[in-house]
Amino acid sequence: MSLFIRSDRPGTTDDGPPADGSSADGGGAPGDGAAAHTGWRDRRPAAARALRRVTTALAAVVVLAALVVPDRLSAMGPDHFVRLPVEGLLGTALLIALPRRARRPAAVLIGLGLGVLVLLKCLDMGFYEVFARRFDPVFDWSLLADGEGYLTATSGRAYAVAATTGVVLLVLLVPALTVLSTVRLSRLVDRHGRGATRATLALGTVWVLCAALGLETADAPVASRESSAFVQERAGDVRASLRDREHFAEAAAHDAFAGTPGDRMLTALRGKDVIFAFVESYGRSAVEDPRIAPGVDAALADGTRTLRAAGFSSRSGWLTSPTYGGGSWLAHSTFLSGLWVPNQQRYRSVVTSDRLTLTDAFRRTGAWRTVGIMPGVTASWPEGEFYGLDHVYDSRDLGYRGPKFSWAPVPDQYSLSAFQRLEHGRPHDKPLMTEIILVSSHRPWAPVPEMIDWDRVGDGSVYDGISKRGKNPDEVWKDRSSIRTEYGNSIRYSVNSLVQYVAKYGTKDTVLVFLGDHQPSPVVTGSDATSDVPVAIVAHDQAVLDRTDGWGWSDGLQPAHDAPVWRMDTFRDRFLTAYGSRPAP
């Protein structure tokens, strides 16, 4: 980079031309032809001197910023950069102590380390904004590819390519910039060794005094050790992630229902059509955050009354999801397998195992036809066999001929209408157990479909006009209040789709269990929300709900604030116990 010009030519100093008055470019006395080869630095020594000082100052700023930049966007204020990082002092002391020949390689390595540090913090910033957690350097790389696919689906291929190109450039430029900066500063140590030593000792004394006095700015100590603590924490995370495979294998080896014969499972639900429905991004904030909840709470109250008028009762509680802001498949596998699945490694392990899932338990009995309605699946989905589904309808099988609603390939009402047409409304020799994924409340929550008369749904072409009338996600995402409003609207739409479907097409044998898979991203919830999601059971037969009397759940679709909160992985065993036998040895 031309910004970091060389200033360590033999015979030069950082403050001017060679002390002997000769040309810095090796030229001789005037008149011998050297003038024709005089560099611009010799012609404009004051400008060259100023430029050297500016670039050196910029190099120091880059190194300082790399050491103190936070890992969260919410902390990215000017006060946070008023720090004296001990790592910078130790790095300078190392360069001073090393022989001259070793300084340049050491500076390059330090610069590369700083570049990696900054990139990891950038990844953390993104993950905190979307998933409310930091980036896992062992398990989370696959999520970056998912992010590219999400951008393609919501903003188009060109935007995704541009964003990916920007990320690649960032990955290349950040380490290059930090390396150039540390090398530049190492040259300063070469030229001014004594001054660098005095400055390092003076700043070290200041650091010790600030640490002893506990001086703070922006609620953080001026005497900073953030980078070393960050590296130490991340190293611990990596060790824990690498050990996680063993811990998960031990947990998965203990399955309380693995030995339970099919004729003893789910006996209290025989003859019932059971639906497990996941509502995308339906989190506790949708029900309790005053910036979102009023519209959603009204929809839940209206839904409870509508179902009651149709002869249905309902109860609700809370589950703690293993994921936040995304990674729906982690929540689905946790809920159905009875194992805690917070990362991709565990997901791959569980879906390639013979673990009994809640849905597969229905198939094991031989008393149900098991079906999946997966509008968000656009390619082959081998996990269907693991989940025990006799048949899976993905987005290509539902017969939809309408527009996409941003990411969502199919509106929720259409998915339920297709389920009625393809399965529920057709005669079968067995009742149905169905897993349905409702995706209309998936980020970016615009445009949101509208409820229409069920007889008008048809092949989905009716949604063309509805999509055009909807809001543009680019406009919605300019303002956080607009994001929350549209998020709440999308949850209301999904809940209304389910409620109206059950009220219209449900029978005395219908049992519905529906829940959120995770909270929406922190841009909606803020940074202090829990990972809890609502869960509800709806049934026409009161005996089905009586089996949950000991759960402490609230009546209706809206769980009370103090209703029990269970980890999502505990639901499988509670459900199998309530509606069948206790675990077999």
Automatic annotation (TrEMBL):
The keyword Membrane applies. Signal peptide: none annotated. InterPro entries: Alkaline_phosphatase_core_sf. The keyword Transmembrane helix applies. Residues 1-12 have a biased composition (Basic and acidic residues). Residues 1-41 are annotated as: Disordered. Residues 14-23 have a biased composition (Low complexity). The chain crosses the membrane at residues 50-69, 81-99, 106-128, 158-183, 195-215. Keywords: Membrane, Transmembrane, Transmembrane helix. This is Sulfatase.
